[in-house]
């Protein structure tokens, strides 16, 4: 029988817990992925009753049918709540006493999983007190795993301070740094696509690939999260972690195995081969109000968010270029772009191959297009390859078409779990491959820190763009400058 599992959600009364952590745990419960004996204990400063907690999280838990509604009631039975400060040893002792009351019902000691749905300002005291008061029994060989969410610092130095602090308390095997992009279906799919298809091996390099583009677009602004966002900006929020992780998987060599460290060793090698970024090849932007019919939010620019200082220069859009200076990739630009309040919700990877040499078809009319492999992370997970075919019928000019695996058409009945669900299950199973290791994190900060400091010092110009637009037009110019050819829909 599985050992009992205690899950503590620190910051249980907050937004992240309500919107992500509890719904994810519910989903794991519905699909029978939690151990038979599990308790889920919320901990936060607010004095809440269990009923009040349930009231807070219920709007975000979405049972799909009557049976799941019943299951939701059973899920609520697993929950409890303890109030306490984040820097008070006695409160953590009290938390531990509460955990033990339930754990004592079982013969076997319990494992413990601590989820920090907390702002970074309290990471240090909370982890210190976890170590002092709330670890699982080592004597009974039970594990304690601590899950933390970005931001892991603001630059190389602050991140190293946090890493050193965590390393003084826990082993690397106990620390799970979440980057939820690593839990996305299509990011995980990349590994299989790249390393299980022989046809990609000979062409996945500088000889055949002209450029790679990784894009993240969101069609809404800060939505009241301006206070958090303004301190970090789009580079720390999206590029330094989510997009860089995606780049690593596109660029890495085949790992010796799928073991967590083999995987992460290869990612670290990619990061080490990225020397840095150029301020001259970076475009920054901040959105301003526009007036999209039926979209009230569009009337608010970034600076209209009450939680954002009036003179904030924080970028809500950034596009930049990275080079992986190794044998496989030298000279191939990786163009990264991320923005809020843009024209659509989309995250994708576009691998653009070189032009086919020796064009013999232009005389026929039509245009020979580059091959492009697109991996669409969201919405509508898909992999498709743009290629040239003969236009059907009597005409014989080239026509661009797609070999298309769109998941919702191909796997109609398959449930694609949310990224968090996959990752929390990995934590329960002790699989760290899709979590960020401390050396990876340090390299990621090394790459971005000089640029971030220049931005913080006001040395990089920022361009206004209208809410709901494609972002500053200089962003598209940058992609073109680095060899990207736009197709329809790119
Ligand atoms: C988070 C960022 O990490 O990712 C948010 O902090 C962003 O600003 C979110 O909205 C995007 O995640 P997803 O899964 O919706 O692409």
From TrEMBL:
Is the keyword Transmembrane helix in the record? no
* Positions of the Glucose-6-phosphate dehydrogenase C-terminal domain: 191-487
Reaction(s) catalysed by this chain, per the record, are: D-glucose 6-phosphate + NADP(+) = 6-phospho-D-glucono-1,5-lactone + NADPH + H(+)
Gene3D superfamilies referenced in this protein's UniProt entry, alphabetically: Dihydrodipicolinate Reductase, domain 2, NAD(P)-binding Rossmann-like Domain
Keywords, A to Z, come to: Carbohydrate metabolism, Glucose metabolism, NADP, Oxidoreductase
Which GO biological-process labels does this protein carry? glucose metabolic process; pentose-phosphate shunt, oxidative branch
Pathway(s): Carbohydrate degradation; pentose phosphate pathway; D-ribulose 5-phosphate from D-glucose 6-phosphate (oxidative stage): step 1/3
Q: Where's the Glucose-6-phosphate dehydrogenase NAD-binding domain?
A: 8-189
Q: What is its EC number?
A: 1.1.1.49
**GO molecular function annotations of the record:** glucose-6-phosphate dehydrogenase activity; NADP binding
Q: Which domain of life is it from?
A: Eukaryota
One Pfam family for this entry, by name?
Answer: G6PD_N
Xref: InterPro entries:
G6P_DH, G6P_DH_AS, G6P_DH_C, G6P_DH_NAD-bd, NAD(P)-bd_dom_sf
Q: Name one GO cellular component term.
A: cytosol
User: Is-annotated flag, keyword Nuclease?
Assistant: no
Q: Which family does it belong to?
A: Belongs to the glucose-6-phosphate dehydrogenase family.
Q: What does this protein do?
A: Catalyzes the rate-limiting step of the oxidative pentose-phosphate pathway, which represents a route for the dissimilation of carbohydrates besides glycolysis.
Its recorded name reads Glucose-6-phosphate 1-dehydrogenase
